Amino acid sequence: MTTRKDFLVQSGMLAAGVVLLPSFTLLAKNPKKNLGVQLYTFRKEMTEDAVGTLKKIAALGIKQIESARSTKGLYYGLKPKEMKDVCSDLGMTLRSGHVALDENWQNTMDQAAESGQEYLICSSMPTEGQTADNYKSVAEAFNKAGEECKSRNIKFGYHNHEYEFESENGEVFYDILLNNTQPDLVHMELDLGWVVVAGKDPLDYFKRYEGRFPLWHLKDMDMVKKESTEFGKGGLNIAQMLEHKKESGLEYIFIEQEEYASTPFESMEHNMKFMKNL
Question: Where is the Xylose isomerase-like TIM barrel domain (predicted)?
């Protein structure tokens, strides 16, 4: 006699204790191996139940994970290696993490090395000041951080927001970072959504700084509200961006959505379907 559980297992609809809906199953059979998610998308859920949330994320067909700081630490209350192992057991890779370049930097690098992640991304400017001098100073700090990470076999990088595209005397602050950091030490994670909201063109950056952007935050943006939305509903031409991934130097895409029509899981299911159909 075949039980319901036997049927689900045989049909591929039961994995890691999670029942996959038909749409989830379809996505899981056609994974884009370098397509991932920034866990800030699921910030509330990860804080409440890290392992359970990771299981649901894996069921969506996501293969790459980028963590973010939380009230429970860098790995949502899990130890670094535990976070790595949970992801691995679910068929995912803990690839990257958003952190701060602050007084805890040495410990942050130690934890990243223990987790086995490839990238360590500074998620915001470590010092305040919308001036060229501050950005040049930060570029020096990034080069140093890149050297320290490299000695631990980790790649250091920086994630932009909108404010880096402001300028002083015609010089864009983000360009200052690019011009004053070493490409082999500082790997840029380009948040495409914030680039277009700032009135800039990601393709222009791919052309002028070819190969500098191995990581993307793929985020469609409501251009009126200046907040994230589901793919295809905002002002980012995602298909066009993907046509130029080679110039970018793209290795991994992390989908990030901070606002949702309903729930982060429903939004991410929509986004994964959108990507599958491109």
Answer: 103-277
User: In this structure, are residues 25 and 60 in contact, taking their beta carbons and an 8 Å threshold?
Assistant: no
Contacts of 167 (CB under 8 A, 6+ apart): 173
Residues of the chain short of pLDDT 70, as ranges, are 1-32
At 104, list the tokens.
């805890």
- CA 246/CA 264 separation, integer angstroms: 30
Contacts of 5 (CB under 8 A, 6+ apart): 14
> Is residue 221 within 8 Å of 196, Cβ to Cβ?
yes
Chain segment 102-131, per-residue pLDDT in tens: 999 999 999 999 999 999 999 999 999 999
